[in-house]
Design goal:
This protein is mainly α. The chain contains 13 helices and two strands. The protein has helices spanning about 5-10, 10-25, 30-65, 80-90, 100-120, 135-160, 160-195, 200-205, 225-240, 250-255, 265-290, 305-325, 335-365, and strands at about 210, 215. Strands 1-2 form a two-stranded antiparallel sheet. The longest helix has about 40 residues, at about 30-65.
Length: about 375
């Protein structure tokens, strides 16, 4: 492997070298199995580390925006505050209410967290560095995005608590409502790239196709792509239960909502899933609309490590999530549902229609 490949894709180069080393020491099937186990363990470690970092980031960013100090006691710059919180939650008593449906109640946080982790499996970090490079990656992501609804309803139903049940039901209504415009928004980059593979969508933005003399650079830079990105971002905020769409856990109305009867680490699993989803939605948005690992110059292969471009775009979107949380108040529930069905859904349908008409017209004009 040449030095240029190593510099432009260090993670892929390291993975290839490790795989070759393992194949020289053992049968190929065993080497492939070990690589899969190592990849899964590394991904779980990255998720945990990302959540710890995001919680600290959110506290510091919101504190700066609201003229406060934020965590600054535990560790340098308060970096270990989140670790201390995790230790506290692990040491708390695990209380199981007497009348809950114990199986459904216990499985709920696992279902929610598993769905969040599965979404990470198809995200392309850099060229060739994809835990599972599926040719239907977008479809897989949309499927995994539907699973948290089941876990939230399980939590509300299994808790045998009327406030938790109300929280679970309104959560299902919110998540299903905003999932539909989110799916429509995700269709736009699929149509522009002509593939459902996430790696293929990134490649289409790195070496874009021309329609009517216009290059599809990063899809956000086309008018329809920008509108689709806005719809996707708003839907992502609602899907991850973030302000101003955090009606799922409206403490003033529902005494914490669907997770009222959870304590200790079970309670923490729901929020581990929330922050994992924030990073995952940001990574998906960066992949679908901002070029993923692709560099800033169209028709030129990315110079430098692609993972740096990818992480930079992802953390920018994470910052936008936190910025919105620190500035906007919570909506009323009727406003939440009206906005989804009367504003966001029609916008998504119009954007998909415009994109389809533009692609069809362009290909007809070019004789494709």
């Amino acid at each position: 492997m040449d030095i240029v490949s190593i510099i432009s894709n260090p993670v892929g180069a390291a993975a290839t070298a490790l795989h070759e080393l393992l194949k020289s020491l053992m049968p190929e099937w065993l080497a492939a199995l070990l690589m899969a186990i190592i990849g899964a363990g590394l991904l779980a470690t990255i998720v945990s580390g990302a959540v710890i970092l995001l919680v600290w980031m959110e506290r510091k960013i919101i504190a700066k925006m609201q003229d406060r100090s934020g965590p600054n006691r535990v560790g340098p710059f308060g970096l270990l505050q989140t670790v201390a919180d995790a230790v506290k939650l692990l040491s708390k008593e695990d209380i199981v209410p007497a009348r809950v449906d114990k199986i459904i109640w216990a499985l709920s946080p696992i279902v929610v967290l598993a769905a969040a982790l599965m979404a990470w499996a198809v995200i392309p970090w850099s060229p060739g560095v994809v835990p599972a490079d599926l040719n239907v990656g977008v479809l897989f992501l949309l499927s995994m995005g539907s699973l948290p609804v089941i876990g939230v309803v399980m939590a509300g139903w299994g808790s045998n608590n009327k406030y938790a049940l109300l929280g679970g039901m309104r959560s299902a209504a919110q998540l299903v409502s905003y999932e539909i415009p989110g799916v429509l928004a995700a269709l736009v980059p699929v149509m522009l790239a002509g593939t459902m593979s996430l790696s293929g969508i990134v490649a289409a933005q790195e070496m874009p196709t021309r329609y009517l003399g216009i290059a599809n650079w990063w899809f956000i830079f086309t008018p329809w792509g920008f509108l689709a990105f806005i719809v996707f971002l708003i839907s992502g905020i609602a899907e991850t239960n973030r302000t101003p769409f955090d009606l799922i856990e409206a403490e003033s109305e529902l005494a914490a909502g669907f997770h009222t009867e959870y304590s200790g680490m079970r309670f923490a699993l729901f929020f581990l899933a929330e922050y994992a989803n924030v990073f995952a939605v940001s990574a998906i948005g960066a992949t679908l609309f901002l070029g993923g690992w692709a560099g800033p110059i169209p028709f030129v292969p990315s110079a430098g490590p692609g993972i740096i471009y990818f992480l930079g775009k992802t953390f920018f979107l994470v910052f936008v999530f936190m910025w919105i949380r620190s500035t906007l108040p919570r909506l009323r529930y009727d406003q939440l549902m009206n906005f989804a069905w009367k504003r966001l859904l029609p916008t998504g349908l119009v954007v998909v229609g415009i994109t389809a008409a533009w692609i069809t017209t362009s290909k007809s004009f070019l004789g494709a």
